[in-house]
Amino acid sequence: MAHEAQKAIARQSLLLKSLPDQHVETLLSHAIWRQYDRGETIFVQEESAQAVHVVLAGWVKLFRMSPTGAEAVVSVFTRGESFGEAVALRNVPYPVSAEAVSACEVMHIPSPVLISLMKADPEIGISILASTFTHLHSLVSQLEQLKAQTGAQRVAEFLLNLCDCDEGACEVELPYDKMLIAGRLGMKPESLSRAFSRLKAVGVKINRNHAEISDIPLLRDYADSDPAENWAR
Amino acid sequence: MAHEAQKAIARQSLLLKSLPDQHVETLLSHAIWRQYDRGETIFVQEESAQAVHVVLAGWVKLFRMSPTGAEAVVSVFTRGESFGEAVALRNVPYPVSAEAVSACEVMHIPSPVLISLMKADPEIGISILASTFTHLHSLVSQLEQLKAQTGAQRVAEFLLNLCDCDEGACEVELPYDKMLIAGRLGMKPESLSRAFSRLKAVGVKINRNHAEISDIPLLRDYADSDPAENWAR
DNA sequence: GGCATCGCTTGACTAATGTCATGTTCCCGG
DNA sequence: CCGGGAACATGACATTAGTCAAGCGATGCC
């Protein structure tokens, strides 16, 4: 069953952290705890939703397959993030598939448990809306970026999101492999490679899965600039 | 105040249609009814949300301005559709701006009304999640299309969504002007024009805001085909 | 009626991205 | 330590979309 360490992570998740302890304990005690290997499927598109999922460790991607077999990555989640809220509560089919992209641990809260608790306390509904809103917001941002930025600019944003600080220099680790980063940013691995090359001009060095940013404000400017402007190479 | 005809439309909206009559009446009686001219702003990004909005007539667009001034259209709503649910219930800033793209009528349900009703009946929460899920789903589809289809294919999908039937031929009216369609599909008006030209090869004729589709399954095939495949021009 | 405006189309050109092919590096297992 | 496969990088080329500029046509205003 669940270790205390896992429960601690679950308690800090956006979904649960603002709920009263009592409800949290109820949910934790009814949850299903599972491990997945890299590449393992968590659920597939069109399958009917029966639980809300909370990632405790590792990385999970949500994606959609187009009729031609092209894969579009919708989001990537890690420790403390949850997904499937809006779907699980309505017993409708998942609009996406979910797959473990690294070995990972996921907690599943069966929908009936959540629904009965929600009927008892409407505050739960607000909490679920909070998570759902976060997802909406993230999708809107992605949409904006895809429509208004070049590939290299999206990569720049991605790197900036990995930084803690907002000035000076910074070193970060790429959280998952470049193929997935490319998918997440809506481009091919080749294009990602080239985008990284371009970013050299604005002080970004990539080595393996390690990135050095020499000037964060400069990179910010680049990411938010008009694509037409010229940035010395 | 509100005419009966407007109330009837509101009652059929996704947000309200599955609620008990009693609740619907409460919400309708507390709602604010407003008219907007073409181009008028309904709310702006970062403004704090105080109501859920239901479109009764006309068209409303939600969009985001990037720092450089580029506009990304996130969605376009019309009669019977609602927006702002997840935001209004949490008192957070809107992630997007809203503007009337034609003369239109919008009903605003103040968040406190909705919240107090939600506390009284958790079923309201489920109904709100239903609307929110619809938006999530639509954003996911848009993302998939942007990532996996060419401009012309997205236009094809757009036309197919306007058709009622799924076989034979069909004639439809373009619901709003081409500049907005282009924005909604993530392209420039010039590109939309050219996309329409290409679609001639798969039996689409555009005249003003009137579109003729001679072979719906053919257009479907085109929309879902691999961009690399060749379609005689 | 005439003129200005705006939405839309078209052409020529450029920038960005995908595709295909090739080569390198790294990691893992024998 | 070696070999094979996967991830990644790079070059050459095709396709797609954005940019800039010109022109058409309907609408509306004076």
Q: Quick gist of this model?
A:
2 copies of one chain form a homodimer. By secondary structure, the first copy, chain A, is α+β, with helices and mostly antiparallel strands.
Structural features, described:
Two copies of one chain form a homodimer. Chain A has helices at residues 4-12, 21-30, 85-88, 111-120, 123-148, 151-162, 178-184, 189-199, 216-224, and strands at 32-36, 41-43, 51-57, 59-65, 71-78, 82-83, 97-100, 104-110, 170-173, 204-207, 210-213. The first copy, chain A, has 233 residues and is an alpha+beta fold. Chain A folds into two domains: 4-146, Jelly Rolls, CATH 2.60.120; 149-224, Arc Repressor Mutant, subunit A, CATH 1.10.10. In chain A, strand 4 (59-65) and strand 5 form a beta hairpin. The A-B interface holds A 64, 66-68, 70, 72-74, 85-87, 89-90, 92, 95-96, 118-119, 122, 125-126, 128-130, 132-133, 135-137, 139-144, 146-149, 186, 224-226 and B 64, 66-68, 70, 72-74, 85-87, 89-90, 92, 95-96, 118-119, 122, 125-126, 128-130, 132-133, 135-137, 139-144, 146-149, 186, 224-226. Chain A binds a DNA duplex (30 and 30 nucleotides) through residues 150-152, 177-179, 187-194, 196-197, 208, 227-228.
Draw up the topology in text:
The structure is a homodimer of 233-residue chains.
Chain A (H helix, E strand, L loop, with lengths): L3 H9 L8 H10 L1 E5 L4 E3 L7 E7 L1 E7 L5 E8 L3 E2 L1 H4 L8 E4 L3 E7 H10 L2 H26 L2 H12 L7 E4 L4 H7 L4 H11 L4 E4 L2 E4 L2 H9 L9
Antiparallel strand pairs in A: 1-8, 2-7, 3-6, 3-8, 4-5, 4-7, 9-11, 10-11
Helix pairs in contact in A: 6-8, 6-9, 7-8
Chain A binds a DNA duplex (30 and 30 nucleotides) through α8.
